[in-house]
Amino acid sequence: MELAYYPGCSLHASSELYDIQCKMVFRNLGIELREIPDWNCCGATAAAKTDDFLAIALPARNLGIADATGLSEIVIPCSSCYSRTLVSQQRLSCDPELKESINAELGRKVEGNIKVSNILEVLKPRVTSGEIVEKARKKLEGLKPACYYGCLLTRFPCDVPVTDDVENPQGMEIICRSLGAEPVDWSYKTDCCGASASVNDAEQSLLLMSRIMKDAEARGANCFVTTCPLCQFNVDAYQEQVAQKYGLGKRLPVYFITELIGIAMGFDAVEMQVDRHFVDAMGLLKELKLI
Amino acid sequence: MSVKTLKYEAKGAQTLLREVMDKSGQNLLACYQCRRCAAGCPVGEETGVTPDRLIRMILLGDRGEALSNLLVWKCVACYTCGTRCPNNIQTARITETLKQMSKKEHLEPLRPRIADFHNAFMKATGHMGRFNEIEGMGIYEAKTALKELKKGNVGAIIDEMKNQAKLGMTMMKKKRMHFKVDKVKNKAEVKALYRKAKPGKGA
Questions:
Q1: Whole-model pTM?
Q2: Which of A20, A35, A41 would best serve as a mutation to test chain B binding (most B beta carbons within 10 A)?
Q3: How far is B124 from chain A (nearest CA, A)?
Q4: A14:B178 CB<8 A
Q5: Inter-chain residue contact B190 with A61, CB threshold 8 Å
Q6: Whether residue A156 sits in one domain with residue A16
Q7: Residue A115: strand pairing partners
Q8: String of DSSP letters for A184-196
Q9: Do A115 and A141 reside in the same domain of the chain?
Q10: Per-residue pLDDT tens for A198-209?
Q11: What pLDDT was estimated at residue B202?
């Protein structure tokens, strides 16, 4: 089958590895990801904070392009892109005037038909159906991930259907368990890493991350796993700074969910670019004899 | 700890409340001060102002405080407050609204770096249609450095450069830095949306 695909800016830049892994894992599940042509930035949090019109209009242009593909579903792996696109679609469905005003500028008009999905929404049913386990070549034994969801996968600024439990989502745990890993139970799975505050309000962001990292360590996790490129980048790239400032016993690698599925599927770790993490992500896999 | 007394300005109260409600789409009158939002706010401790306090400022018509307090700037838009509100008030939409109102009134942001970052992000996005990390960070760092320079804080500029250079070097080493410019072909369409957002101003 074919799904429309919106990588967003970070999957074309610092989180290119996530783009590569998504394509590898989905292809092995029989899903071709068709990147929508000439997409633009969703505006992320910056648009919401600076301009109400652009916050809706930027994702709307992508929705128009996605609708024009004729495909029924678009998957958006980045939590922020997913959230902004879903919010835009919902807003346009109940504000025909705004929709008309935006459509007037667009070559491919927003119809609002395509289903906007996050990555776990597409993967979870394939755990239930047994497809993911069927494709697995090895068990992720010894891996104890702290499944980190962050903010934007389950919390929205308006009424949209939420695909997991808001306070205690389980999507990643279900996938990890099916592959033989033992996800830990912990308290900070939906807490905020600060997002762009790591750049513009660093003290605040480091404090927020220290709480997340300390709890994961205290609960006996030996790694993090996430679906959001910004969460991944922050918890990975700033872990050393947090350790220096707040004291951490261990450094935990921060995997994308696609990395763990890919390793279980028997993909080559280097081909998946697992060696592009800040906190060494290859060592633990070697230690557990998963690669 | 000293707490500032909230001022009541009868004349301004109604217009401020209406303006914030209209722009944010949130019914602030539904707040009954249960403070579930405050309990979940990840920056509440540092800002001293929690979402419930912010709503009270607006209801009481304290325009000055409402437009210029730390929560408006430091809010990380995690949407915890709104998700837990028994009356579905999305305070993060209110901070977003107040930030925009404060900009419109040319008030100096309490955290200029935060404002500069989001403005730089939107500028870079408007330029290429996609956000290029090097371009966006370049605009942001230049803005920040210029402001520090005007204040004579050369030390702050050097610290920032050191930090960013360190992160940049690690990103290079880990092949996380991306030099190819990513852009939209139909930039005219993106620019048209920018023009519609701010009539009279280009992207």
A1: 0.95
A2: A41
A3: 10
A4: yes
A5: yes
A6: no
A7: A73
A8: PP-S-TT----TT
A9: no
A10: 999 999 999 999
A11: 41
Same domain, A58 and A193: no
Tell me whether A59 touches chain B (CB under 8 Å): no
Superfamily name with CATH number, domain B10-104: Alpha-helical ferredoxin (1.10.1060.10)
Identify the residue among A49, A86, A251 best suited for mutation to test binding to B, counting B beta carbons within 10 A and taking the highest.
Answer: A49
- Do A28 and A99 reside in the same domain of the chain? yes
User: CB contact, 8 Å: B91 with chain A?
Assistant: no
pLDDT score, position B6: 66
Say whether both A103 and A147 belong to one domain. Answer: no
Among positive and negative, which fits the CA dihedral A9, A13, A15, A16?
positive
Look at A46 and B125 and tell me if their CB atoms are within 8 Å: yes
* Most confident of the ranges A237-241, B136-140, B199-203: A237-241
Residue bearing tokens 């404090």: A207
**Does the beta carbon of B125 lie under 8 angstroms from any beta carbon of chain A?**
yes
Q: What is the pLDDT of residues A126-160, one digit of tens each?
A: 999 999 999 999 999 999 999 999 999 999 999 99
Last residue within a domain, chosen from A119, A145, A161: A119
Residues of chain B with CATH 1.10.1060.10: 10-104
- Give the residue from A88, A119, A150 where a domain finishes: A119
Give pairs for B137-143: CB < 8 Å, separation 24+. B137/A199, B137/B164, B140/A199, B140/A200, B140/B116, B143/B116, B143/B119
**Rg (chain B; Cα; Å):** 20
Instruction: State the residue range of the domain holding A77.
Output: 2-119
In a domain, A130, yes or no: no
Task: Select from A142, A167, A133, A149 the least CA-distant residue to A224.
Answer: A149
Do the domain assignments include residue A254? yes
- Give B119's contacts in chain A (Cβ within 8 Å): 46, 50
**Is residue A124 in a domain?**
no
Alpha helices in A51-95 (DSSP H): 52-68, 79-93
If one counts the domains in chain A, the total is 2
Instruction: For residue B128, count other CB atoms closer than 10 A to its CB.
Output: 19
**Chain B residues 129-188 with a CB less than 8 Å from chain A:** 129-133, 137, 140, 163, 167, 170-171, 174-178, 182, 184-186
Q: Does A95 touch chain B (CB under 8 A)?
A: no
Is A272 inside a domain boundary? yes
Give the other-Cβ count within 10 Å of B108's Cβ.
8
pLDDT in tens, A35-45: 999 999 999 99
Average of per-residue pLDDT across B53-82? 95
Distance from CA of B46 to the nearest CA of A (A): 8
B54 is written with which tokens? 């912010």
- Range with lowest mean pLDDT among A137-141, A161-165, A201-205, B166-170: B166-170
Predicted complex: ipTM over 0.90? yes
Q: Closest Cα to residue A215, out of A188, A185, A243?
A: A188
